[in-house]
């Protein structure tokens, strides 16, 4: 592993920001640290960068323990959430700043900055000041500045948080493509699971200062390892009395269940091909979500959420429907059990 954290503890007064955090990052990987506010993800990033010191444990970069090495000597590039650009410097001078501090030759600085300006799509903007740029352009400048000194590791703290939704989506693809071209090991912090799933090679889920799960976006989404991961990833609805749902039996030690909208199929009662596995419900609310409809449905006194195609049957509040639930994640104290509808015999009814 290129980056390793071993049993890292960090407290701020009575707040435990990191509690025995351990994980490794392979060289060249793009890793997402994902978790809610206060979960410890930014503290982890700052400790790797050398901006905070752990109370206990070891941080290794390239096999070398760096706990006592200053941030300036760790070979780490850092992109801040607020960009942290110098207001009175041009784009060129902002990108060149680290190289100037390192007292690099003027010809090398120009060559390196010109290379990064082309890489980040900032050609023609070299003389502009930060206030003359869009949010997306400012973020690219911050990214180029972090890359200028040729760091071995790139850290990004909520890199898209200050950018509007449309530009943020465009920059996700740009960031993944650009980091792939550079080939630099990178770790970014986010609380946006869509961002993590789209950008990261692997995701590290944090909660209350601990690591909940590590894996690829697909693995974590399909196979959450802890109750927190199951609740946090995806559009999750917590159901306490899941034994009232047709095809599911309440199991000892599993007090509640997670139901995702994609685990639910809704059709008109007369169109249900699996009546033995479904149950009747009543549409309570219909919401337009752009590319689909969100149906809120009462089933045996339980309110469920399902997605429905805009091209499908039209449903109105009060309509009787047939509801097929094909999967649940059952939540134990520290474990998750994936269970399928026991009444389903035909696998063609399964869908993801």
Describe this structure as you would to a colleague:
- With 352 residues, the chain is of the alpha+beta class.
- It folds into two domains: 221 residues, Rossmann fold; 115 residues, OB fold (Dihydrolipoamide Acetyltransferase, E2P), CATH 2.40.50.
- Helices cover 24% and strands 32% of the residues.
- It contains eight helices and 19 strands.
- The strands form four sheets. A six-stranded mixed sheet has the order 6-7-8-3-9-10, with helices on both faces.
- Strand 15 and strand 16 form a beta hairpin.
- Helix 2 packs across helix 3 and helix 2 packs parallel to helix 4.
- The longest helix has 18 residues.
- The chain is elongated.
- The two termini are 34 Å apart.
Briefly summarize what is shown.
With 352 residues, the protein is of the alpha+beta class.
Please mark out the parts with pLDDT under 50 across 5 or more consecutive residues, or reply none.
none
Quickly count the domains. Answer: 2
Find the structural class using helix and strand composition. alpha+beta
- Strand coverage percent: 25-35%
**Which homologous superfamily in CATH is the superfamily of the largest domain?**
P-loop containing nucleotide triphosphate hydrolases
Could you say what the CATH architecture of the largest domain is? 3-Layer(aba) Sandwich
User: Taking Cα atoms only, what radius of gyration do you get, to the nearest Å?
Assistant: 25 Å
Order of helices and strands: EEEHEEEHHHEHEHEEHHEEEEEEEEE
Averaged pLDDT, please? 90
Strand tally is 19
Counting H and I runs of at least 4 residues, what is the number of helices? 8
CATH class descriptor of the largest domain: Alpha Beta
Major sheet description: 6 strands, mixed
Helix content: 10-25%
Q: Quote the CATH topology of the largest domain.
A: Rossmann fold
């Amino acid at each position: 592993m290129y980056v390793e954290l071993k049993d890292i503890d960090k407290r701020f007064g009575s707040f435990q920001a990191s509690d025995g955090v351990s994980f490794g990052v392979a060289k060249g990987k793009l890793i997402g640290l994902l978790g809610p506010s206060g979960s410890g993800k930014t503290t982890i990033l700052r400790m790797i960068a050398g901006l905070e010191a752990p109370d206990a444990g070891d941080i290794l970069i390239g096999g070398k323990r760096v706990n006592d090495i200053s941030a300036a000597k760790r070979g780490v590039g850092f992109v801040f959430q607020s960009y942290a650009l110098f207001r009175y410097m041009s784009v060129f001078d902002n990108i060149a700043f680290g190289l100037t501090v390192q007292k690099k030759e003027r010809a090398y600085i120009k060559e390196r900055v010109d290379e990064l300006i082309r890489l980040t799509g900032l050609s023609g903007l070299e003389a502009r000041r930060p206030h003359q740029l869009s949010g997306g352009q400012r973020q690219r400048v911050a990214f180029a500045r972090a890359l200028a000194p040729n760091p071995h590791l790139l850290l990004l703290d909520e890199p898209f948080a200050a950018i509007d939704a449309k530009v943020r989506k465009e920059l996700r693809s740009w960031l993944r493509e650009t980091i792939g071209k550079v080939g630099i090991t990178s770790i970014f912090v986010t609380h946006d699971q869509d961002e993590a799933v789209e950008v990261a090679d692997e995701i590290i889920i944090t909660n209350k200062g601990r690591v909940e799960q590590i894996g690829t976006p697909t693995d974590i989404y399909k196979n959450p390892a802890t109750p927190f991961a199951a609740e946090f990833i995806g559009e999750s609805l917590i159901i306490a009395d899941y034994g009232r749902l047709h095809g599911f039996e309440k199991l000892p030690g599993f007090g509640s269940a997670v139901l995702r909208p994609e685990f639910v199929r809704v059709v008109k009662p007369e169109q249900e091909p699996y009546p033995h596995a479904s149950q009747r419900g009543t549409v309570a609310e219909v919401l337009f979500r752009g590319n689909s409809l969100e149906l809120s449905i009462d089933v045996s006194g339980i309110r469920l959420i399902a997605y429905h195609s805009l091209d499908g049957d039209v449903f109105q509040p009060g309509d009787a429907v047939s509801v097929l639930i094909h999967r649940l994640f059952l939540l134990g104290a520290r474990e998750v059990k994936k269970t399928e509808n026991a009444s389903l015999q035909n696998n063609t009814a399964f869908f993801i």
